[in-house]
Amino acid sequence: MRSRRFGLLVSVLLVSLLLLTAQVRGGGAGRAGDLVAMVLTPVQSLLVKIHRGAIGLWSSYADWKGVRRDNAALRTEAEQLRVQALQHAETERENVRLRRLLELRQRLPLSTLAGEVVGRESGGWVRALTVNRGRGSGVAQQTPVIVPEGLVGRVVQVRPGASVVQLINDPASTVGAVVQRTRTPGLVEGDAGGVVRFKFMARDGAQVARGDYIVTSGLGSLFPKGLPVGRVVAIEDKGSALFHFAVVAPAVDFARVEEVLLLTGQTNQDMTALFGADG
Amino acid sequence: MRLLLIFTTIGGNVAQASVVPSLSIGGITPDLPLILTVFVALRRGPELGCIVGFFAGFLQDVAGGGLIGVQALTKALAGFAMGLLVGRFWVTSPLVQVPGLVLLTLAEGVGRFLLLQFFHYPVSLGSLLMHVVLPQALYNGFIGAACVAAAEAVEAARRRGWA
Fold first, then answer.
1. Residues A207, A197: Cα–Cα separation, whole Å
2. pLDDT tens-digit map of A256-268
3. Contact with chain B for residue A48, Cβ under 8 A
4. Are B70 and A36 within 8 A, CB to CB?
5. Which of B28, B113, B141, B155 is most exposed, with the fewest beta carbons within 10 Å of its own?
6. A-B contacts at Cβ under 8 angstroms
7. Mean of the per-residue pLDDT values of chain A
8. Which residue from B39, B58, B60 is spatially nearest to B48, judged by alpha carbons?
9. Residues with Cβ < 8 Å from A115, sequence gap 6 or more?
10. CATH top class, domain B2-162
11. Correct CATH for A111-275 of 3.10.20.90, 3.40.190.10, 2.40.10.340, 3.40.50.300
């Protein structure tokens, strides 16, 4: 066993040395070297072909992996760019809103305080916004709250760092208002369904029409005069009832309000013109 | 079994020429045929280690275009030596196999250098050790460790499958 084992080793070594010797010595005499080359050249060619095939296969796999990696990287980049574009668009929209708010603030003849909406309650029982201005900023109860489109509501609760604003479509909200065109007086009220109604005396019914703009009346000195409330979209004729109602589409889309102005000062000036001729 | 050994020998050579170059670090690549020779020798003894080493080295010589027989001789010796160690030392542990592979690569490199001295190889041993043999030995050790871990995992999975 042992001798067979070493016999194998010696044979292998002898073959190797023979091959080496044949190549080196063959360089001079030519025959032995040529013989080795003649025998091994087809093997070499076959090996080269096999290697070439394997390299091609491996390169294809490596290329495929590279394409996959590039694809994943490009997808990630596209995703990031999409997010950046969205952020950019959002910033641009915020800029537009803030610029409009600033322009309005500069036009108004009374002191104001800008606030950001930090909470929303629109379940039906209560319709309110929470803004990030409170007692610390000098906000008081009943402070009117507006946006460039018109009246949002009034502050009903003041906390240290925030205020709750009752929207004009809240069921408990009542705002003194007039029809801008005819000066017909009435009350703007919210209801549980979120519809805003303008309640007016039946005898004045003929003076209210669809498309009329409703603005604050300024009576009671709570809201300044001329703040846009909305536009009449329907008249509800109650027959012989003392009061009739007009359904009003609010000037403000409450769901989209993000920044507001709190009117901390007072003025007797009619503000209709500041919001545009038609409210 | 013989067919498997033939495939291992040829497959190792083909992989050395195609896949292994992509694993190159600073121009150093692992010697996959030597790693396979060592693993065959560890599991099948000196005879098969010697034969697989001879053919693996021979194919490398043929593919490399240099002196045919140099690597055939050194790898045959390496396979034989590793196969002999199995009976004498505790080389079934990966903790011995991997350093053993590193040392064997160094020995194979030195052996190849000594053999090439007969053919007036012009590079000094120090430079060769520093730039080629030692980095390749470490690389072989690393690849060998990965192979051992993979083999252990496969073996464990197989045992769990049978249990």
1. 16
2. 898 999 999 888 8
3. yes
4. no
5. B155
6. 79
7. 85
8. B39
9. A131, A132, A133, A137, A145, A163, A259, A260, A261, A262
10. mainly alpha
11. 2.40.10.340
